[in-house]
Request: fold
Amino acid sequence: MGFSLTKEQLLIQKSAREFARKELLPKAADRDKNAEYPADSLKMMGELGFLGMLVPEKYGGMEVDTVSYALALTEIAYACASTAVIMSVHNSLACGCILSHGTEEQKQKYLVPLANGDYIGSFALSEPEAGSDPASMTTTAKREGDYYILNGTKRWITGGATSYLFIVLAKTNPEERHKGVSAFIVTRDMEGFVTGRKEDKMGLKASDTTDIIFDNCKVPAQNLLGKEGEGFYVAMSGLDAGRIGIAAQSLGVGWAALDLAVEYSKQRVQFGRPICENQGLRWMIADMAVDVEAARLLVLNAAAKKDRGEMCSKEASMAKLFASEMANRVTANALQIHGGYGYTKEFTIERLYRDARVFTIYEGTSQIQRIVIANEVIGDKKKKKKK
Ligand code: CAA
Reply:
């Protein structure tokens, strides 16, 4: 299956590449070392349109297709995986859920500042006891007059300490599983919103991950996203787009690792010749290149399917599963090619290896992606999906 990109898609890829290599790449190592949030780069990304890529122009967005978005995200991830996850969650999940399920009033109010980067958006689904099984969440939302009162704890929230807006999933009917879940647009300044403990992670250090605690948090009733009881569908369809984003992020990191391995193998001389002249190593590099290319095609395939307005759960999960595992294989082999040097913080591959590790875990583990794919392929659990 070939992919020929349009002039516009190539232009977006080029401008994302130029921005990422000039602005993000030189800062990525220090940001990793100091766990420094890329605030100034995100401001620039807002000005350039990278924070409202799928948002219509009438709400201040760039209004490009998912293929262009995936191409741009891959370039950002090539330079800085931490910035890429912030961009992915913001575009795919925060903007995406409001775009697909928001009222006109919600779109006017929230998409404009999200698209220009004034607000950074996040997604609050997981809980301490509800990760792969979000329908078992215990956070509640009780209607009281003009407000919903939220109580509970969310965990593993990307941007929990830094984002302003959150798509929050909570149960309006705790007796039910997924049919009791509703979605809300919550902002940090709402009464009862508390930032919880920050995780000390292995990688993606420049992107904070925290708990969020809702302590009688007062959310205006007009911030219900979709109808009561429809929150699980909001989250699941959002994750279809989110998984394309994480697949593109994985692709960017795998690609960067391959390039680093090639460059190093040409420079490193052992036994009187560059190590790239050894057949064992050449075959490793060939396998890595095939892995990266296969992931690229799966990412583009899922994005193109979404652009055609078709359900893309299976393709998004295939892209996410393959690309995230590819990034782990390729960064591990690229580190191996760097030998002892690759195990030190002086070489970029050490950061890529740590960053890649979470790709097979967040936005659905590899095991969850296999459930989604198998359900679709076997077709015995087919239900009508709501967009
Ligand atoms: N789009 C729309 N609707 C969907 C859907 C989709 N992609 N997938 C499922 N649904 C619907 C089903 O049709 C069903 O609807 P009905 O009952 O009305 O027919 C309903 O949702 C429930 O579906 P299931 O019975 O299949 O639900 P389940 O409880 O068995 O779970 C699952 C399915 C795929 C395992 C799901 O729970 C899942 O994706 N789990 C992983 C969660 C996850 O990815 N978490 C990531 C956290 S976010 C994150 O990491 C972001 C970050 O900050 C980086």
Q: What stands out?
A: The radius of gyration is 21 Å.
